[in-house]
Amino acid sequence: MFSRLQYITDSPRLAEQACRAGVKWVQVRVKSTDEKTWVEIAHDIAKICKANNAICIVNDNPEIALQVNANGVHLGKKDMSLADAKKIIKTYKLIIGGSANTAEDVIWLAEQKVDYMGLGPLRFTSTKKDLNPVLGIEGYTKIMEEVRQLPIAIPPIYAIGGIVAGDIQGFLSMGIYGVAVSSAISNAKNINLVVQEFMTGIEGGLNAVLNEKELNHEIRR
Question: Which among 54, 82, 127, 221 would be 20 to 30 A from 192, CA to CA?
Fold first, then answer.
């Protein structure tokens, strides 16, 4: 089972604080820097994740993911193709994820057998350049209603893009598996408190979904 909370960062210092606060999945997203620095950052964060029994995913670059012994790689829509990435990691059991912005993207990624996907953005975020069209809650709802009716297995979907803890219950109720966040944790005055807010939101959201299923079952009876 994957953690339902992903933290995206390029800071080993913040990654360590987040892991100590309870984060069990860190995605290393490094942009606009040389490869040597990228490798150093990814190596440090992968080491921190291993010490804290957390998953480490490297954004965009499967070669670096292998080099630093990360657990997997995440590929955006404009990054290396999934086919090329799979050739590089084919002899390794790495997690592979992809980015989606439409129902068609979700379906395509599911057909490519990714292990998970990030769907978004929910709202505008300054941490991501070349931002895809903002979905809003209405966009997520429409996409999830469409893909849940299809006779194909959909891997875990993470909402991404300006997510805050208060968004979680609504996402879980529509079938979203978890959330991927950056600014909400990175910019927090108290990372421990914010991580716990997300964890509490996830627990409460899962309980609400379970209670709703039990209620619907009783009604059908």
Answer: 127
DSSP string, the chain: ---SEEEEES-HHHHHHHHHHT--EEEE---SS-HHHHHHHHHHHHHHHHHTT-EEEEES-HHHHHHTT-SEEEE-TTSS-HHHHHHHHTTS--EEEEEESSHHHHHHHHHTT-SEEEE--SS--TTSSSPPPP-HHHHHHHHHHHHTTSSSPPPPEEEESS--GGGHHHHHHTT--EEEESHHHHT-S-HHHHHHHHHHHHHHHHHHHHHHHHHHHHHH-
Domains of the chain and CATH, by start = 5-220 (3.20.20.70)
**Per-residue model confidence as pLDDT tens digits over 64-111:** 999 999 999 999 988 888 989 988 888 788 999 999 999 999 999 999
56-67 mean pLDDT:
96
Residues in the chain, total: 221
Distance, in Å, from the CA atom of 157 to the CA atom of 154, rounded to the nearest integer, reads: 8
Query: Which one, of 137, 136, 142, 171, lies nearest residue 156 by Cα?
Result: 171
**Average of per-residue pLDDT values in the chain:** 92
